[in-house]
Design brief:
Layout (H helix, E strand, L loop, with lengths): L7 H10 L12 E4 L2 E4 L2 H22 L11 H16 L12 E2 L1 H11 L24 E8 L4 H10 L5 E2 L4 E2 L4 H7 L5 E8 L8 E9 L12
Helix pairs in contact: 3-5, 5-6
Length: 228
C-alpha cells in the first residue's frame, strides 16, 4: 500500500487552517475529496457525513429491485401452478373416483391476468355471465388471494385455499365457514386452470400482489350448501 507524503504546500495549508481567522473554532480533521485535502470545521464534517449517509440510504432503497411478476407464459410458473393444484386434488378425502387431471388453459390465464391487473379484491363479474370469461366454457370459476409476492406465493395461496377443507362436510355437501376456494380446487369436473399475479401497491405495500386463478368447467354452486 503506497503511503502519501505531505508536500510543503500541504504543510502550509495545515498551518493556515489552524489560524484564529476561522473564528476561534479549531479546524482539525482533513476531509479527502477526489485526492485533495480540505480542512473543515467539525460541524461541517458531521453535516457532510450525515448527508452522505442519507444519500446512501436513498440509493439503497432505490436500488431494491421491485418484485418480478411471473409471466402467464413462463414454463416454471405454469408447471408450479399445475403441480400445486393437482397435488391438492390428489389428496382430497375421501378420494374422488372421477377426479380429472388439471391442465393449463391460456384463455383462462389471460382472463385471470386482466382481472388481477385491476387490483380489486373482488370477483370478476364475467364469472357469472355466459361465455364472458372463456370462448368455449359457459362459465369459469375463480379463486383470489392477496399477499406479498415471493417465490413461494403461488404454493402458499393454493395451500390456503385447500386448507378450507376443514370447513367442508362431505356427507352433507355443506360448509360450516368459508370453503368455496377449497371446493373449487377440489371440484372433480374442473380440468382447466389459468392463473396470474399482479403487483397492487394500493393494498398497502410495494410488494402486495393479487393472485387470481380461473377454472373450467366452473363448480356447480347449487351442489354446495352455504358456499362462500
Amino acid at each position: 500500500m503506497r503511503t502519501l507524503a505531505s508536500s510543503p504546500l500541504q504543510k502550509s495549508a495545515n498551518r493556515t487552517a489552524r489560524t484564529p481567522e476561522a473564528g476561534k473554532a479549531r479546524l482539525t480533521e482533513p476531509l479527502r475529496v477526489c485526492g485533495s485535502e480540505r480542512f473543515l470545521h467539525p460541524t461541517m464534517i458531521l453535516r457532510k457525513k450525515l448527508s452522505y449517509l442519507w444519500t446512501l440510504g436513498l440509493c439503497l432503497v432505490a436500488s431494491k429491485s421491485p418484485p418480478k411478476v411471473p409471466s402467464i407464459k413462463d414454463d416454471t410458473f405454469i408447471e408450479e401452478c399445475l403441480r400445486f393444484h393437482n397435488e391438492a386434488r390428489s389428496n382430497v378425502s375421501p378420494p374422488a373416483a372421477d377426479m380429472k387431471y388439471m391442465s393449463w388453459d391460456e384463455a383462462l390465464a389471460k382472463t385471470a391476468e386482466a382481472w388481477a391487473k385491476k387490483c380489486k379484491f373482488s370477483h370478476n363479474s364475467c364469472s357469472s355471465k355466459l361465455y364472458e370469461c372463456h370462448p368455449t366454457f359457459q362459465y369459469a370459476g375463480e379463486n383470489l388471494w392477496l399477499g406479498p409476492l415471493t417465490i413461494s406465493a403461488a404454493k402458499f395461496a393454493i395451500d390456503m385455499w385447500y386448507d378450507e377443507r376443514k370447513f367442508y362436510d362431505f356427507n352433507t355437501k355443506s360448509c360450516s365457514k368459508i370453503c368455496g376456494h377449497y371446493t373449487q380446487v377440489a371440484w372433480a369436473d374442473s380440468y382447466k386452470v389459468g392463473c396470474a399475479f399482479a403487483i397492487c401497491p394500493n393494498f398497502g405495500s410495494p410488494d402486495s400482489a393479487l393472485f387470481v386463478c380461473n377454472y373450467a368447467p366452473a363448480i356447480q354452486i347449487a351442489a354446495i350448501s352455504c358456499l362462500n
